[in-house]
C-alpha cells in the first residue's frame, strides 16, 4: 500500500487530527509535518493515509486486524458481494449480504433486488430491479469462503432490463450452432490510471506532458512505469478469484496498462472480464487512483485504449482453419457498421488510422498488421489454422456485446451470395 501511494501525491499526506505524534513513526514524521505546513492540500483519503502507516499500537492496525479476521472457526455464514452493471452500461455497482453457509454454484444463491432509480435503471415509482446470480468468484478482499457474484438484472416480471446485455449473449452462446463450435475469446483489456481530482494520467506532471511515447511500453524504471503495484495487485487478485487471466503488460502511453483474460469459452469471457474490471475498480479505490476506460483519455499523439478481442472457433483451430477464418472476416466486413456501433462509446476518437488503429469507417484485415481492423497472426497463416484478433473494440466496450456479436456474425448470420462475392473481391479473399 505504501508503495502505491507515490511520495509526490501530497494530497494524501494530510493526517487525521486524532493521530497524535506519538503514533507516528519517525520516518513519516518529517513528511507529515511538511504536508501539514503546506496546509492547503485537501485530503479526501484520510483512511488510506492511516492504512499506509505502520504504527505499533495504533488504531490503524486494529482496523486491519478486523478486516483480515478469519470468521470461519466461529460461523458457517459467509458474505456474498452481488455485482451488477449500472445505468451507463459501464459503471459497476455492488452490495453485500450474508448467506447461511458457503456455496459453490450460482444456482444455490437467492435472487436479490436493488433500487434501480438510484442507478439510472428504473423510474422512482416502480424502482425494483431483480438481480439473478450468474457466476461466482472467490473474494480476494474478504478471503475465506466469501464470494463475489456476477449478476444480471431483470424487471420483476422477468424481462431483462435494457442494460442487461448478458441475457442476449447467453442466448447466442446456447444456440446449438454456436455451442458446437466452442467459441474461444482472449480479451486484452487496456486501461488508464489517473491521479485523483486532476483527471490526468498517473506519473504525468500535472498540467504538462511526459516525454513522447517509446520508452513506456513494457517499460521498467521509475521514469517509465507508473502504477505497476496496481497492475500486479490486480493480477494476483484475479488469480485468487479464479479469473482466467493470462497476462499483463505496461502500455505505450505512460500510466496505461493492459491485462488479458482468456482464452475463455462463450459467456464465460464476459463474466470474467466484468469481474476483473470490478477487482480493478476496488484496487484503484484502495490506492486512491482513478480508473478510466475512456478509449482516448488524452487527445493528441498518445495511444488510445482498446479491448482487442481474439476469437476462434473449433473449425478455425483445426486443419484448414485459415479458410474458415477468411470466411468469418468476410462476414465481419459486411457487418462492419453494426460492429462499430456496438464496440464502445467514443471509439471514433480512438480509431483514427493512427496509433496502431484502423480508420473507423474502413474495414481492413491483414497478417501481422496492427493498422488493420482484423489482424491474423503469422503463426495462424503459417499453420493454416488458429485465431484472429478484432482490434476495433474500445476499452469501454461491453464484452457480452462484443463476444455475442462476433459469434452471431460469424456463426449465425449469412450474407447474400452477391454481397459475399463483392466483399471477397474487395478484400482479395478467395473463399
Ligand atoms: P497482442 O500480441 O495483440 O498484444 P496478447 O498476448 O496481449 O496479444 O493477447 C492475446 C490473447 O489471445 C490472449 O488472451 C490469449 O489467451 C488469446 N488467445 C490465444 N489463442 C487464442 C485462440 N485460439 N482463440 C482465442 N483467443 C486466443
Ligand atoms: Mn496485448
Ligand atoms: Mn495493448
Ligand atoms: Mn492485441
UniProtKB/TrEMBL annotation:
GO MF term set: ATP binding; glutamine synthetase activity; mRNA binding
Segments forming domain GS beta-grasp: 78-158
Signal sequence interval, chain numbering: none
Gene Ontology biological-process entries: glutamine biosynthetic process; response to cadmium ion
SUPFAM superfamilies listed in its UniProt record: Glutamine synthetase, N-terminal domain (SSF54368), Glutamine synthetase/guanido kinase (SSF55931)
Catalysed reaction equations from the record: L-glutamate + NH4(+) + ATP = L-glutamine + ADP + phosphate + H(+)
Top-level division of the source organism's lineage: Eukaryota
Uppermost EC category: ligase
Region (Disordered): 99-123
PROSITE patterns: GLNA_1, GLNA_ATP, GS_BETA_GRASP, GS_CATALYTIC
Enzyme nomenclature, EC number: 6.3.1.2
Localization of this protein: Plastid, Chloroplast
Record flagged with keyword Heme: no
Family: Belongs to the glutamine synthetase family.
Subunit-level organization: Homooctamer.
Protein's recorded name: Glutamine synthetase
Native organism: Beta vulgaris subsp. vulgaris (Beet)
Amino acid at each position: 500500500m505504501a508503495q502505491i501511494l507515490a511520495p509526490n501525491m501530497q494530497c494524501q499526506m494530510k493526517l487525521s487530527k486524532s493521530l497524535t505524534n506519538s503514533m507516528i513513526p519517525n520516518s513519516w514524521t518529517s513528511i507529515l509535518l511538511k504536508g501539514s505546513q503546506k496546509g492547503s492540500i485537501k485530503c479526501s483519503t484520510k483512511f488510506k493515509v492511516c492504512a499506509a502507516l505502520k504504527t505499533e499500537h495504533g488504531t490503524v492496525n486494529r482496523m486491519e486486524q478486523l478486516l483480515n479476521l478469519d470468521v470461519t472457526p466461529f460461523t458457517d455464514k459467509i458474505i456474498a458481494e452481488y455485482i451488477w452493471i449500472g445505468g451507463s452500461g459501464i459503471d459497476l455497482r455492488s452490495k453485500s449480504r450474508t448467506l447461511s453457509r458457503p456455496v459453490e454454484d450460482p444456482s444455490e444463491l437467492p435472487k436479490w433486488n436493488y433500487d434501480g432509480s438510484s442507478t439510472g435503471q428504473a423510474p422512482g415509482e416502480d424502482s425494483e430491479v431483480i438481480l439473478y446470480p450468474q457466476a461466482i468468484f472467490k473474494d480476494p478482499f474478504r478471503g475465506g469462503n466469501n464470494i463475489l457474484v456476477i449478476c444480471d438484472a431483470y424487471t420483476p416480471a422477468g424481462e431483462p432490463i435494457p442494460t442487461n446485455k448478458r441475457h442476449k449473449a447467453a442466448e447466442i452462446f446456447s444456440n446449438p450452432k454456436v455451442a458446437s463450435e466452442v467459441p474461444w475469446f482472449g480479451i486484452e483489456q487496456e486501461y488508464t490510471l489517473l491521479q485523483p481530482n486532476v483527471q490526468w494520467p498517473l506519473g504525468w506532471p500535472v498540467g504538462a506532458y511526459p516525454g513522447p511515447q517509446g520508452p513506456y511500453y513494457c517499460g521498467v524504471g521509475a521514469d517509465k512505469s507508473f502504477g505497476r503495484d496496481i497492475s500486479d495487485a490486480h493480477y494476483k487478485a484475479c488469480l485468487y478469484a479464479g479469473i482466467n487471466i493470462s497476462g499483463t503488460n505496461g502500455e505505450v502511453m505512460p500510466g496505461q496498462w493492459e491485462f488479458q483474460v482468456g482464452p475463455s469459452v462463450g459467456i464465460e469471457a464476459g463474466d470474467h472480464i466484468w469481474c476483473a474490471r470490478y477487482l480493478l475498480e476496488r484496487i484503484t479505490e484502495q490506492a486512491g487512483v482513478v480508473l478510466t476506460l475512456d478509449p482516448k483519455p488524452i487527445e493528441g499523439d498518445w495511444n488510445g485504449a482498446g479491448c482487442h478481442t481474439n476469437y476462434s472457433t473449433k473449425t478455425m483451430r483445426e486443419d484448414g482453419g485459415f479458410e474458415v477464418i477468411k470466411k468469418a472476416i468476410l462476414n465481419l466486413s459486411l457487418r462492419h457498421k453494426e460492429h462499430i456501433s456496438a464496440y464502445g462509446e467514443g471509439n471514433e476518437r480512438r480509431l483514427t488510422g493512427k496509433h496502431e488503429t484502423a480508420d473507423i469507417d474502413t474495414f481492413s484485415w491483414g497478417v501481422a498488421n496492427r493498422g488493420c481492423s482484423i489482424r491474423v497472426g503469422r503463426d495462424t497463416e503459417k499453420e493454416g489454422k488458429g485465431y484472429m484478433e478484432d482490434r476495433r473494440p474500445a476499452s469501454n466496450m461491453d464484452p457480452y456485446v462484443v463476444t455475442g456479436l462476433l459469434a452471431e456474425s460469424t456463426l449465425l448470420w449469412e450474407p447474400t451470395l452477391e454481397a459475399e462475392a463483392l466483399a471477397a473481391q474487395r478484400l482479395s479473399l478467395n473463399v
